[in-house]
Here is the input.
Amino acid sequence: MLAAFEGWTDAGGAATCAVGYLAEQWHSHAFASIDPEDFYDFTSVRPQVRLGTDNQREIVWPQNRFLSGRTQEGRDVVLLLGVEPQLRWRTFGQCVTSVAESLGVEAVFTFGAMLTDVPHTRATPVRVSSADPGLALRFGLSAPRYQGPTGIVGVLQHAFAKVGIPVASLMAQVPHYVPSTPSPKAALALVRRISTMLEMSVKTSSLEWAAARYEREVSEVVAADDDIASYVRQLERRADGGELGDMVNGDNLVEELERFLREQGGSQS
Here is the structure.
């Protein structure tokens, strides 16, 4: 099972983009969903009103869909695409694990993306970890070391472990100075990483094109601001020196950028 959720651990929409892309490549079809009624505060995540092809209004609720697909190598895969719930996370976790158990899921890989201090001009780092000894040995993974607030992905990892289904986490790092920009480059990195791990053949040409366009357009925006361009060059030097960004909270990253810009302003005066 591959799982991704819109929300806190989906910076640049990279995680949901990656799983959605794989679902398309495998011609997946939805076979089940979780009723949103018990899991959302609809004043925060509001349902959408849309007009259908017959101009009739319909309400579109937050969705958590299970899809089934088959890789080119003949492996059956369940994909879970959804929106991070706000309520009853333990019950939500039980809903997800019950589906996985009933289908005989052998392993789960959760996808995520966080804002970090990495440059958009370098390869997107993807950190993979697992607390399961079997998966750790199979893929050469380290145990997760993060401590602090978690999202639904972290809760699900714990829920799967409780029912004996091994789980690993893939977390891409997205430049924090373009937080609202969709990142196909990070999505591509996630797709490539899971494809390598599971020895799957996946065509990525359309994602590669989108990633190249993303890098080019972000570079144009950055080049128009001397201070930001200088900051990105600093990040590039750190990345080239092997200093990967740390996945910390957005407030700290904003403070780092503001501090850099203040220092730049002081050096120019």
In short: The longest helix spans residues 205-223. DSSP finds eight helices and nine strands in the chain.
